[in-house]
Predict the structure.
Amino acid sequence: MSTLLERLLRRNRAVSARDALRLRRGPTGWLIVFAVALMSAIAIGTVLTISKFREDAIERGKQDLESAALLLARHFDQRFDDFAVPQKAIIAVLESQGIESPDVFRSEMGTLAVHEVLRTRAGDGTDVVGAKLFDDDGNLINSSQRWPVPDITVANRAYFQQLKRDPRLRVAIEIVSSRTTWPQAIVFARRVSGLHGEFLGVVTRSIAPEALEAFFASTGLGAQASVTMHNTDGALLARYPHVDALIGRNFRSGPAAQRAVFEQPSFVGRLNSPIDGKDRLIASRKLTNYPLVIVASSTVDSALAAWRTQTKFFISVAGGSILLIALTLYLIFRRIARQLTLDKLRLDTAVNNISQGLLLFDASERLIVCNDKYIQMYGLSPNVIKPGCMLRDVIRHRKATGSFDGDVEPYYHHILRTKDTSTTYIVETSGGRLIQISNEPVSGGGWLITHEDVTERLRAEERIAHLAHYDSLTDLPNRILFREHVERKLAELAPDKKFAVLYIDVDEFKSINDSLGHHVGDEFLKSVASRLKSCVGPSDLVARLGGDEFAVVISSVSEPSELTALAEAIHRAIRHPSDCLGQEISSDASIGIAIAPGDGAELEDLLKNADLAMYAAKADGRHTHRFFAPEMNARMKARRALELDLRRTLSEGGFEIHYQPLVDLNTNVVAGCEALLRWRHPDRGMISPAEFIPLAEETGLINELGEWVLRRACADAAKWPDTVTLAVNVSPVQFKSRTLAMKVAAALGNSGLSPNRLELEITEAVLIRDDEEALAILHQLRDLGVRIALDDFGTGYSSLSYLRRFPFDKIKIDRSFVTDIAEVGGSSPIVQAVVSMAAARSMTTTAEGVETETQREVLRRLGCCQMQGYLFSPAVPAEKLGELLRSGPSHAVA
Ligand code: C2E
Ligand code: CA
Ligand code: CA
């Protein structure tokens, strides 16, 4: 159980919150760590990738802008060179003439011919003004457009002033509000120098911002993008998309990034747009040959448009993965949690359904599991004794609630000392309960304690052990304990010391038991037991060996005379009448005595010899005691030999039957004869049936012997006169065989003897044993027509009650009543009573053992029907009987 429990407990611990630490260390913990790490990696990776992509997107946006700016700068360098070709040509012509003064210049250039040259050399277009000539005061002197020229001055224009002021400056560009052509125009002004480098005037050529803006649009930078052209002073010349209000505005002043655009040959950066205030990426590039800057810009927003789509995709993929992992983890945990709940339920069920109180502590003396049984066992409070509570608190609570008597600290230390070993011990509670406490260490330093109330079990075991060694009726030691005791005594016997074994057989117990009932018999045995105990000392042992056999072991004997005195005391005790359920009963005993070691130093020898001594006492007429003597052994051997002889004799036909006549007391006529068995032994002569019938009964030989007597006697009687009946003794043992009636019928049939001439003599012992069976057989016999006589009447206990049970034909009054019948105070009143009772029930009476004439006379007067005894004749052989019968009554009476 402990391993299963441990396993369950280990799992169970994972459930408790306070052991979350343990969970982290376990495989589930690693799973969580791994999953969280994976999710974090996905999240971090996604963020890093996204920000990298963002940087890339911005970088790419910048690159796009940079290359656009570069291409545009190159394009316009080229385009403005082409644009400058007519101007340069005009200037070349003018300068080649070597004009020395502005007046000359003015007068020579302000002619129709020059106008024609201008018109052909630099034709006007829709968004291009071919050429204009201004003198050193800024007045228009000629133009490709119109002739005569209108009165126009550019003296206050910046480009004019710059070119006039700085002789090294070749070209100046400015956006101006046009008075003639488009609302605004970009003016490219070039200086015309005289022979010695003096300022003569300027040649301008203009272009509409829209002409440039149309090209900007062709770069296709996207909706959020803008392309502008500034001169290096910061003035905005053109912009795509076009915003009228912005053209001409100066952007030079502003944050550093903005200024850098006008100061550095190229610039890439990010700034807040001064135009729309948006966060923008910009790239600028100065033209090589002109003081112009191309600026391409786009909002960061638009640069990140693609990145945003990517980001959404990344985030959804990463989010999906994290969600999937979390879901998987959740499902795993839910499953584990369910399993754990189930395990906990199983554990709780298991723990709460065991018959022991159970406590499980961990290495820190903390209670982990405690079942209901433990709480109930000691009547504790489940609010105190619960998981988490400390060992010391458990003991204190038990002390406080009264289920523990000892001192808390010593017991606490005792438990700590023994917790790492498997131990089991039993303690007794103040309430007298016996509790078996078992301690079992579990892995990890904890230990399991079980408490089991073993009171009933131990008491039952004690009872069983007691039953195995004690007799349940008398509570005396039984044969087993008796033998053990004797064996021990023999083993421990000191030299020169002796002890005695007495075998005591209660005489006549069987008939007490049988006639008065088992309850009375049992009571009688109990009284014998207590009387025997009263006869011996405290160190002596009285045992009941079974039935009516008792034994006494006298632990120390110095003189045999002590034992004689003891035997006599026992006799007296048993003889003394005792009241058993209202019946006055007294009996006697046959006692056999053997003294160790003289009568046997070995258990079997000693007991066998005590037994032999007891048999000797019985054989010597009971009511006495005998010390073992070696001859008894010989006598027992002789008895065995006799038994063998008996069998042989029966098979070889060594038995004979003698007949004793029964005489009618009124007529003195022989009315019948009783068949009495005789054994003529070749060595020992005639042996009395009193000597061998009991042996034949004991060995079962009586069945064959009795059948032989029956057949033989019937055959003999068939030869007698019809008036003479035959009486045959039937042993109670023969009544155990159900074939008795059949055998009787066969004997009658074979001999031809009439059934009414056969009388069967039975003793009351027949009816004692198994009333119903025997009664049935008796009735069968009666049905054959055979008569039944009750033999030895008066010797038993309740002869009268048997008379009521079966309608006997005859009562044979026992010799013991006849012996003293003639004496004063003798048995005549009893005989008188029997005779009148028998007469009342139509039974005849026969008196046995009539030896004197006086006895015969008394019996005749008392009304007895027949007599039998030596007075008339002892039992005689069959041949002799013939004479007797023929001699007639007159002879007999003499
Ligand atoms: P029992 O049936 O009471 O037989 C009468 C006994 O008294 C006989 O002893 C007989 O010889 C003896 N007896 C007769 N008259 C006198 C007398 O005047 N004085 C004295 N002292 N004794 C007298 P026995 O023949 O020795 O038989 C002893 C017992 O053996 C019988 O007692 C009977 O119980 C039993 N027995 C004899 N033969 C058989 C038999 O064939 N079958 C059975 N089952 N038992 C038998
Ligand atoms: Ca008889
Ligand atoms: Ca008799």
